[in-house]
Amino acid sequence: MTLGKVRIMLNGVVLAVLAVAGLVNGLATDALPVWRQLLYPVLAVLVYLHGRHRPVRRGGLVVGAVAAVGLVIAVVRVWEGVGALASLGLFVVLPWLAGRFRRQQAELIEVGRERIVQLERAQELVADRARLRERARIAADMHDSLGHELTLIALRAGALELTADTEPTRRAAAGLRESAVTATDRLRRTVGVLREGATPFEPPDETVEALVDRAAEAGLPVVLARTGDTTPLPPLLDRAVHRVVQEALTNAARHAPGAPVTVELATTDEVLVTVANPVDRTPDGDGDGSGLAGLAERVRLVGGTLRSGVADGWFTVTARLPREGGA
Predict the structure, then answer these.
(1) 206: number of Cβ within 10 Å
(2) In the chain, is it the N or the C terminus that has fewer CB atoms within a 10 Å radius of its CB?
(3) Who's near 299: CB < 8 A, 6+ residues apart?
């Protein structure tokens, strides 16, 4: 038997003793001595404190058993029994019920305070989680925008290296290209640590046509072919299409510099995006694969599928996205 159960049993015994004392003190009340008169308030205070601080299992049964004794007395001696029951009810039962009510009220207040503390902690956890998600979104934007721009810088530096007239200029262009590639790799590793959770869904600042034109101006031999419905896509779907083309162009510029790239965008009941470029060997990937992995997750969130791989000497990225996925 545990210590808690023993204490509860002892509390029941104490309650029974107090109830018997109240019952007995109500007998023979014709000429009460002073000490018995003083016993009533003392008994009421003790019973109240007992109910306030001492939990009892089945305390009502304990008091009821003592009251049953008072009923037996009332059957034998009516007035004696009525006085005893009145003493039990006024100076034992009522104070004990008042103390127990006050204890339950205090317990409810304490539970409420603990609940408030838990809610405050939960709010802090939600705020921390929101900050982490915001950091992940910033990291995703860094990967989407800065990674692409650094790749274009490396591409321009490579073109300058090929067309430079003097050796110092070629060395400077080569150093610029290597620095841009190194910065891109470091950015990808950093983003791989920070990038956690969902990527942002804000619409892009440029269209797919503008993205392809900017890559062509940087020296990437890319051609865009668009067929089907030309109605503007919903923002979420348009963002996903933009990211597919952006990531595919970035990978083509890194793994197959100088190779022609074709971008096909067909819009019917679904949006089919195909980006292909010839390769001499299977690409090594983009570090930890966070680019294509994040891209596949974005496409999945709008209900589409993404496939990439080498077939017949061409590295192809194909995305199928349902038009209703961007609603």
Answers:
(1) 13
(2) N
(3) 240, 244, 305, 306, 319, 321
CA 47, 53, 54, 60 torsion: positive or negative? positive
CA dihedral of 306, 311, 313, 316, whole degrees rounded to 10: -10
In sequence order, what are the residues at sequence separation of 6 or more whose Cβ sits closer than 8 angstroms to the Cβ of residue 222?
A: 212, 215, 216, 249, 252, 260, 261, 262, 263
User: What predicted TM-score, i.e. pTM, was given to this entire model?
Assistant: 0.44
Helix segments in the chain, DSSP class H: 3-25, 34-53, 59-76, 78-88, 94-141, 147-163, 167-194, 208-217, 235-255, 290-301
User: From 3.30.565.10, 3.40.640.10, 3.40.50.11060, 3.40.50.2300, which CATH number describes the 205-327 domain?
Assistant: 3.30.565.10
Q: How far is CA 46 from the centre of its chain?
A: 51
Please compute, for residue 160, the number of CA atoms within 13 A of its CA located in the half-sphere on the CB side: 19
- Average pLDDT taken over every residue of the chain: 80
200 or 90, greater pLDDT: 90
Range ranked top by mean pLDDT from 13-27, 238-252, 262-276, 289-303: 262-276
Please name which of 219, 230, 224, 227 lies closest in space to residue 272, comparing C-alpha atoms.
227
What is the rounded CA–CA span in Å between residue 108 and residue 77? 44
- Window from 44-58, 142-156, 245-259 with minimum mean pLDDT: 142-156
